[in-house]
Each structure stands twice: as structure tokens, then as C-alpha cells.
Amino acid sequence: VVVHDAKTDEEGPRLGLLKIRKDRPPKYKRLEIEDWKHEDGRSNDLESICALPGRSGEFLMAESGYQKQHFGRLFHIAVHKKIARVLSVLSLPLIAENTKKTVGDNFEGLACVSHHGSNVLVVLGERGGSALYPSGVLRWGWFDLSTGSLTWPTEGTKGKDVAAPGPWVHGDSKRDIADLYIDTAGILWATATEDPGNDGP
């Protein structure tokens, strides 16, 4: 399951299925969501998605952050037989809002880890590369599968800085966290990228 970062005023897919096939090219199918279950309507700048541990076909997907006190949502969705639906809409932590003058929160990574029964550790990756966030930041909260509630503790919203190593051609456009991945050993990996312009990273 993949997400697309279309803005709220842009047409185009928000969600899709990508099937990886051994001897043939990958196959893509667009998924539609009819009801976003929120007054802000369809998604704006989806950046990340993670599978919920122990919940077949259920995912969390996150927008990049808030704009003018809108968006900043985490969608709990279910995908079944090529149909996607929103189960609930939760709020991301608001540390710094995005404005015309300031680049605020930009969450580009998301990971979910099972933790003691119905609790899921939700890890967000702030990309970094801005005046406010020169480096990436890991932030975390707790999603309770039994109640559907999401909490962001003070320590989790404060977060942990992450600086990607290595020489960079465009150091001023480096993003320390472009995606997050947890392997089978429980190790959290982050990918980093340079993004010097709109032609792509």
C-alpha cells in the first residue's frame, strides 16, 4: 500500500496498491476513499504509511503537518479486497505550524511497533533541512488498539535529534529523515536524501 502527496486542491490519487511481481513489471492500482470522516475533507500531502501490527489490512497514514490550523491528521484505514476506508481520524502533534514565512513540522517518516498487548508505538520522522529543524527529529506516541486513542507524551513530542552522516553535495537541502523502516530485529532505519529543487530528490 502506497500513499501520494497530492495537496488538497490537487486532483490525483491519494492511495494505491503496488503489486511486486517476480518475472513481470510491478502492477499499480489506484485506491479510492469515499469518506475521509473529517471536516477538512480529503488528505493533504500524505507522506507516510505503516502497517498496524496484528491487524491484517489495517494501516496508519500521516499527512506532513498543519497548515493554517488545518490538516495535521493521522488516518486509521482498512484495506480489504481493493477497497479502502477510513476507520478514524487522529491528530498529529503540533510543534510548529507551516506558514508562508516559516517551514514548520514536516513529518515524512512513520513506523508502527507492537508494544505490550494493545499498545502500538507510533514513531514519526521530522525530515529536517529547515531553519527551524536543521536536522531530523524522531517523535513518538502511543496508539491504543483497544480504545482507538492516540496520545503524544511530553518526551515523545520533544523527540530525539537525528543527523544523517556522510558528505552531501547540497548540504543546505539535506533531509535527514525521508522515510522510516523497522526490520525484523527491531532496528529502526531512516533514509536520508537531498532535495535541491522540484525536479526530484
Give a verbal description of the structure.
The protein has 201 residues and is mainly beta. 2% of the residues lie in helices and 46% in strands. It contains one helix and 16 strands. The chain has one helix at residues 154-158, and strands spanning 2-3, 15-19, 27-31, 46-51, 58-63, 66-67, 70-71, 73-80, 83-91, 107-114, 119-126, 136-144, 149-151, 160-162, 174-182, 188-194. The strands form five sheets. Strands 10, 11, 12, 13 and 14 form a five-stranded antiparallel beta sheet that branches. The longest helix is centred in the C-terminal third of the chain and has 5 residues, at 154-158. It is globular. The relative contact order is 0.13. The model has no long low-confidence stretch (mean pLDDT 93).
